[in-house]
Amino acid sequence: MGAKPLILRALTYLVLILALFPILLPIYWMIITAVKPKDEVFTFTPEWVPHTVALSNFGLAWNSAPFGHYFINSVVVTTGIIFLQLVTSTLAAYALARLRFFGRGVLFLIILSAMILPIQITFLANFVTLKNFGWLDTYQGLVIPFAASAFGTFLLRQAFLAVPPALEDAARLDRCTGLSFLWNFLVPLSRPTLLAFTLVALVAHWNDYFWPLIVTNTDAVRTLPIGLGMFIAQEVTTDWNLLMAATLFVSAPLLIAFFVAQRYFISSFMHSGLKG
Amino acid sequence: MTRSVLLRLQPYLYLLPALIILALFNYYPILSLVDMSLHSQTPSRPEAVWVGLQNYLTLFQTPVFSEVLVNTAWYVLATVPFTMLLALVLAVLLNQKLRAMPLFRGLYYTPVIMPTVAAAALGLWMFNANNGLVNYLLHLLQVQGPAWLSSEQWALVTVMLIGIWKNIGYYMLIYLAGLQNIPANLLDAARLDGARAVDRFISILAPLLQPTTYFIAVVAIIQSFQVFDFVNLLTQGGPSNSTNVLVFFIYQNGFEYLDLGMAAAIAVVLFGLVLITSGILTWALNR
């Protein structure tokens, strides 16, 4: 088949580039503002390219709040959530996909229905529960409510169902059954799904602002989004360059990961979006 | 004997960790919220007292609550169709076999990867009334820009624009996944038969994309019912409740006014709305 007419291709590019303008302009402006010295921030005619690059903004912003500590908290909480979700979802998905037992269909529906009960509806009750546990303002308070995932269980169940029963029979001859079949066969064979689910959970929980806002109260457990949120409340109308510098370094870890491994991220999000 | 019992219990043991967590933090909260909403518990009266439907009756007579409902409805009705339409157009364009496609796809997706807090910070700076870039660009077009987030008339629109900016890439990608599931030869055949691009879209793509569209609609509606982060970070529901939405109203009643019963009643109403909406959409999908 011949190539598309040149004019049509040019038109497609033109529209795509025009539509990109509003998407990228705020990000460009964040980066530019983040490296401007203070006196260049408030000019009537905006400076599209800064005269002097003030990299010291990043140090100033970083040291204006315990961002190092917030970063560690974000790593601990996100890792904890993802690890627990992978374990609980894999086990549950294994039972639902490969074992026969009484009540399987009902239990699957019960797990699925958790998807329409998001934290934005349940948070008040969960806050009271954690208060009774004495878990407010702790790591476990940030992690345990997300230790299971209906969505992850659903995705992994689909993946485990796709493994042919013949393989299980063959493995059984080698005395590889139950959990060792799960670990040695199902898990390696479902690697794309596991990766997809991990990346979706990573973006969701690394960026989460809502639940940490509800349960954290001290710097000991505050995560990066909370730190940035407090910075917004403090710095508004004064040091835009520092606020943009903080915004940049809070967004940077995932953005860098995304652009380095874009292929995996994109195919993961497509994969999980379609099946969700 | 014990071994065979253990074997029969095995599936339940594997399901147990997930079920315990979901029961405790997803299902129990609904019962707990209903129960809380039937009690009154305030700082002046810390012991929960049974009040029946009183919280609901008070809620439906509170003028702010109807404002909150209207704001939430506006947010859903304005952002969902607009986001979906734009996402579809972008996805159709990106589905052309162009060399720079992966680059464009990644760039459009960038805001989705950023935290909502970062998007809020960018929005705050871009829409700043005096020094913001948006008003400067409007000034170049000889338009006097409004005060955006501090204007009663424009604050909700600003929150919507920031929300659309943040989410459009997400829905674009789901549409793209849907488009790539449509066999290319189907479209090629239509092209050979001389069907125009518009006809090809209406008679082939649109019907085949219908499941994707329903899926996106359900996700987008439920998501926008839950908008909170931008409101809390940018406007605190103001000016004069013009951006107060359901989840923020729960938060306000629960954590600022410390009126747990009232906050729970609003949460139950929100749950009902989400349930009804997804019910209607599922019914429409299966019809």
Distance between the termini of chain A: 35 Å
Strand order of the largest sheet of chain B: 1-2
Radius of gyration of chain A: 24 Å
Helical content band of chain A? over 70%
| Strand count of chain A | 0
Order of helix and strand elements from N to C terminus of chain A: HHHHHHHHHHHHHHH
What sort of overall outline of chain B do the alpha carbons produce when their principal axes are compared?
globular
Tell me about this structure.
The complex is a heterodimer of chains A (about 280) and B (about 290). Chain A is globular, with a radius of gyration of 24 Å. Chain A has 15 helices and no strands. Chain A has two domains: about 5-60, no CATH class; about 65-275, MetI-like (MetI-like fold, Orthogonal Bundle). Chain A starts with 5 loop residues before the first helix and ends with a helix. Chain A is mainly alpha-helical and about 280 residues long. The model of chain A has no long low-confidence stretch (mean pLDDT about 90). Chain B has about 290 residues and is mainly alpha-helical. Chain B has one domain (about 55-285): MetI-like fold (Orthogonal Bundle), CATH 1.10.3720.10. Chain B has a two-stranded antiparallel ribbon with strand order 1-2. In chain B, β1 (about 40) and β2 (about 45-50) form a beta hairpin. The N and C termini of chain B lie far apart (about 50 Å). The model of chain B has no long low-confidence stretch (mean pLDDT about 90). Classes of the chains: A mainly alpha (about 280), B mainly alpha (about 290). The interface between A and B is large, with 93 and 89 residues.
